[in-house]
Design brief:
Helix content: 10-25%
Region (Disordered): 24-48
Shape: rod-shaped
Largest sheet: 8 strands, antiparallel
Structural class: alpha+beta
Order of helices and strands: HEEEEHHEHEEEHEEEHEEEHEEEE
Signal peptide: 1-25
Strand content: 35-45%
Keywords: Signal
Number of domains: 2
Length: 346
């Protein structure tokens, strides 16, 4: 067979420089857990743990882009990608002549003669074979999926085209750190909801008093401060795969700050609600140094929680990995009137 329309091969010549990856899921949500989204191919990831939305119940899932994946090879119309002999002829007659000069390295992105011959033999024995190509963001990303790395003129060239049994191309390569970052972003960490005591009645209009220990606590302790331990966890696992990552977020507690007083309270104190007879040492208290006369609505009091995040996980090769992630912070501002009580002592 003599193939024509050489202009249709230009894209493949340039594409020969693409770096390979491993992926066996096909876009569109077919076997392998992949999905074609507005931002490109992605894999389905299940979230679990106390920090997952809904506690991770009912199989809460998101989609995360893989590093690289395999798709059926793009060729000009009329070329049968399930016929290895036809693909070899297509390469020899339509692609290889262009791989010279500055494009010479593209030759090494194609499989060797032996790989073609083996695919032809297998197809002749009745096995269904399809040629695939690697897709990914860039050459470095595709290196993760290539079944073979060639070397030319001091450059590493990933083999980006390969024959696999039809429908059995490798799974997408997923970076567990990408899972960790996606999980951190999805982790349920809320702004603290604050209550306080005292809140004066009558003429005091909800105010507290200068020099009086005002007790603050969070009313959403698990979501805003991770309970008494100040910790939340979330685990992300590729559906149908072996790659996973688990993120641990930790906080030292609640910071209550105003123009006239501040306190840093560990989680166990920050979640302790005031009750009659409680000792001030048991809670998160602030003593305001002056009245809030310059603030008509009361002092703006910020309640904030800073979270540090670490992760650990496993790659598709079973390697254990992990490290630090960017932290998160949540805060709320409430107005607290502070009054000054005058008294005469005999």
């Amino acid at each position: 067979m003599r193939l024509k329309h050489r202009s249709a091969t230009i894209a493949l010549v340039a594409g020969a420089m693409l770096v390979p990856t491993t992926a066996s899921a096909i876009p569109g949500g077919e076997e392998g857990g992949g999905e074609e989204t507005g931002s490109g191919y992605s894999v389905e990831v299940r979230l679990s743990g106390d920090g997952a939305p809904g506690g991770g119940g009912d199989g809460y899932t998101i989609h995360v882009p893989p590093v690289c994946w395999w798709e059926p090879i793009a060729v000009m119309p009329g070329v049968d990608i399930t016929d290895p002999e036809e693909i070899r002829e297509y390469f020899e007659e339509e692609i290889r002549p262009w791989l010279r000069g500055h494009a010479a390295a593209g030759y090494f992105a194609w499989p060797s003669y032996e790989v073609f011959e083996d695919a032809i033999r297998r197809a002749g024995a009745g096995e269904e074979i399809t040629f695939y190509q690697i897709e990914g963001a860039d050459k470095e990303a595709k290196m993760a999926c290539s079944p073979q790395i060639n070397h030319y003129d001091g450059e590493d060239i990933p083999v980006a085209y390969w024959p696999f049994a039809t429908g059995e191309q490798p799974d997408p390569v997923v970076d567990p750190e990408d899972l960790a970052e996606a999980a951190r972003d999805e982790m349920v960490i809320e702004a603290p909801e604050i209550d306080r005591n005292p809140q004066g009645a009558g003429a005091l209009g909800g105010a507290t008093l200068v020099g009086f220990d005002t007790w603050f606590w969070v009313t959403n302790p698990e979501e805003s401060i991770g309970g008494a331990d100040g910790e939340r966890r979330i685990r992300a696992e590729v559906v149908g795969g072996t790659v996973w990552a688990e993120v641990t977020a930790q906080t030292d507690g609640l910071t209550v700050a105003s123009p006239a007083g501040r306190a840093d309270c560990e989680p166990a104190l920050a979640i302790k609600a005031w009750s009659p007879g409680s000792s001030d040492a048991e809670g998160c208290t602030v003593s305001f140094t002056r009245a809030s006369v310059q603030y008509p609505d009361g002092y703006p009091v910020s309640a904030s929680v800073e979270w540090a995040a670490t992760w650990e996980g496993v790659t598709q090769d079973g390697e254990q990995v992990g490290g630090d992630l960017a932290g998160r912070s949540e805060s709320v501002v409430v107005n607290v009137p502070v009054a000054e009580s005058q008294a005469t002592v005999r």
